[in-house]
Specification:
The chain is an alpha+beta fold. It is built from 15 helices and 10 strands. The chain binds protoporphyrin IX containing FE.
């Protein structure tokens, strides 16, 4: 019996049970000792006589239905509008609630209020995702994993949107549509297309460092709880005295990193495409509290100005020996969402959701991102997506932004213009002193070039990192070969050359393993299809290739920047 009168069940403080369902079993379904007994209503709240009844002429199955049957009309009309556009990328995901806790003092580099007191906890929601697959796609596939954290600080919502790879494939924002298209489906066949995939990377070899991670077993984590994640982009920790440092964040799992091999990942994808969502949901239902430690790589702006690696190049990492990790927090998850659609699907994250003490940087990928997220969310969720409970900050006030579809906030006669004789809006104290970044220069149409230095960190990853992990070099070669073998021969040849630039032995091993796979697996029918595609694309393949040159680094990326070094 126990049904509440507000349409929810099993009420806790907010009328919901711990998982928003009735004493959920492990898959979130109801248990029989908690029966809802409540009159169903129409949308306007009037009682419905029989929920599954439909008005007919005559008491028989073949009788025609009536347009006046409001309950039936509403039920069907609501159902046909249940789906919303899925995310362009990161469509497949799951979420959880928890908190961020300050473990070590970091107040010397940031004035962020939520980081000022060791031991303070800030409520947090996280959405984990794969990147390329559609909603409902298998989760254990080879891919980067997205970690989007939403922290409800007293000074507004702070979103940290990180990835399980420490580097990104691009450093020119204008390449994002190409990268996204090439790693999704062929526009003609609607199928994943490995020729398209490798053709993109052959022509955008600054992604080589990212590819090394993507084809290692690190890109098939057993679940989200057993993976690390990284901010990749450099952000800024700021202080209210106007000073700042650049910062990269590393989030390290306390469950230990655990990855599937390609074969294991494939088996699990077939047996349980929802494996990662299930693993997280079950762990939280069982009372486990997965956690991650949070570290900062603090980057002094003056050091960054002369450091050989451009800190705004998202294809590079910064060595720990020069920029050590400094622990300052912990993320703990302790609760499943109450409603998957309302919270996970409708959550809207953006790197522009920042709070005083945390700021964007000139990183061009971060700058490109600053326009993308809220824009796509207005399309995906509607103009007032920020008023949805999962996205809403504790406090916000801006009478200049009002109205639009589905407005909940009523500001009445508050002037919707500024300045006004009737309002007084003081400057926020946190920003009282302007920061010290100075810029000057001419506008140029800049596109980064692939240089020899782009292969250095990829080489270290192959020769030192993977070499130190037994079996991982072999797995890497097999992972590439399994994927590359279904690309056309012309594309494969260019890819071998790309891996040879990392390491000659690596290039040779990939070629040998891939051609063996081609000889063993590619059918004549498959070759015909892919060769047609190749004929269309390869005419300009070589013309498009950028001439390699040997500049030691990409410092020119920001040659127009004038630092204030005083
Ligand atoms: C130019 C580069 C990028 C662009 C244009 C871009 C764009 C997008 C878009 C349009 C979405 C879907 C958002 C939504 O529908 O709510 C998304 C999701 C996401 N992006 Fe990016 N992205 C870029 C780079 C990055 C980078 C470098 C990272 C991390 C370091 C990142 C992390 C994420 C995450 C974690 C999500 C999933 C958010 C969620 O769970 O709702 N993105 N991105």
């Amino acid at each position: 019996m126990n049904g509440s009168k507000n349409g929810t069940v099993n009420g806790g403080a907010n009328g919901y049970s711990r998982n928003g369902v009735q004493n959920g079993g492990t898959n979130g379904t109801h248990s029989k000792d908690e029966i809802i007994e409540e009159i169903i209503t129409t949308m306007n709240g009037a009682p419905v006589k029989k929920v599954a009844g439909s008005q007919r002429i005559g008491n028989q199955l073949r009788a025609t239905l009536l347009l006046q049957d409001i309950n039936l009309l509403e039920l069907i009309q609501h159902l046909t509008h249940e789906r919303i556009p899925e995310r362009l990328v990161h469509a497949r995901g799951t979420g959880a609630h928890g908190y961020f806790e300050v473990t070590d003092d970091i107040s010397d580099v940031t004035s962020a209020d939520f980081l000022q007191r060791v031991g303070e906890k800030t409520p947090l929601f996280v959405r984990f995702s794969t990147v390329a697959g559609e909603r409902g796609s298998a989760e254990t596939v080879r891919d980067t994993r997205g970690f989007a954290f939403k922290m409800r600080t007293k000074e507004g919502i702070l979103d940290w949107m990180f990835l399980s790879t420490p580097v990104f494939p691009i450093r020119d924002g204008a390449k994002f549509p190409s990268f996204t298209h090439a790693t999704k489906r062929n526009p003609r066949s609607g199928l994943p297309d490995h020729t398209m995939f490798w053709d993109y990377f052959n022509n955008n070899q600054e992604a080589i460092h990212f590819l090394m991670f993507l084809f290692s077993d690190r890109a098939t984590p057993v679940d989200f709880q057993h993976a690390d994640c990284f901010s990749i982009n450099s952000y800024r920790f700021t202080k209210s005295d106007g000073s700042f440092v650049y910062v990269k964040i590393h989030v390290k799992t306390n469950q230990g990193v655990q990855n599937f091999t390609a074969a294991e990942a494939q088996t699990v994808a077939g047996q349980d495409p929802d494996h990662q969502t299930r693993s997280l949901f079950d762990d939280l239902e069982a009372g486990k509290t997965p956690s991650w430690d949070v570290y900062a790589q603090i980057i002094d702006p003056k050091k960054a100005a002369t450091y050989p690696i451009n800190i705004f190049d998202a294809t590079k990492t910064l060595p720990f020996k020069d920029f050590p990790l400094r622990k300052f927090g912990r993320i703990v998850l302790d609760r499943n969402p109450d409603d998957s659609f309302a919270e996970v699907e409708q959550s809207a994250f953006s790197p522009t959701n920042i709070v005083p003490g945390w700021a964007l940087s000139p990183d061009p990928i971060l700058q490109t991102r600053s326009l993308a997220y809220a824009d796509t969310q207005r399309h995906r969720l509607g103009v007032n997506f920020i008023q949805l409970p999962i996205n809403k900050p504790e406090h916000s006030f801006n009478p200049l932004m009002r109205d639009g579809a589905a407005t909940f906030r009523a500001l009445g006669a508050t002037p919707n213009y500024f300045p006004s004789s009737f309002t007084k809006y003081p400057v926020a104290a946190q920003y009282a002193v302007p920061d010290e970044e100075h810029w000057l220069g001419t506008v140029v149409d800049f596109e980064s070039q692939v240089v020899a230095a782009d292969f250095v960190q990829a080489r270290i990853f192959w020769e030192e990192t993977l070499a130190a992990e037994p079996g991982q070099q072999d797995n890497f070669v097999n992972n590439v070969a399994g994927h590359l073998s279904s690309a056309v021969a012309e594309v494969r040849t260019v890819t071998y050359a790309m891996f040879t630039r990392v390491n000659a032995d690596l290039g040779m091993r990939i070629k040998t393993a891939t051609e063996a796979a081609v000889a063993g697996t590619i059918t004549p029918a498959k070759l015909k299809i892919t060769n047609n595609f190749a004929n269309m694309k390869l005419a300009d393949l070589h013309a498009k290739k950028q001439a390699p040159h040997d500049s030691p680094h990409n410092f020119d990326l920001f040659a127009h920047k004038a630092w204030s070094l005083s």
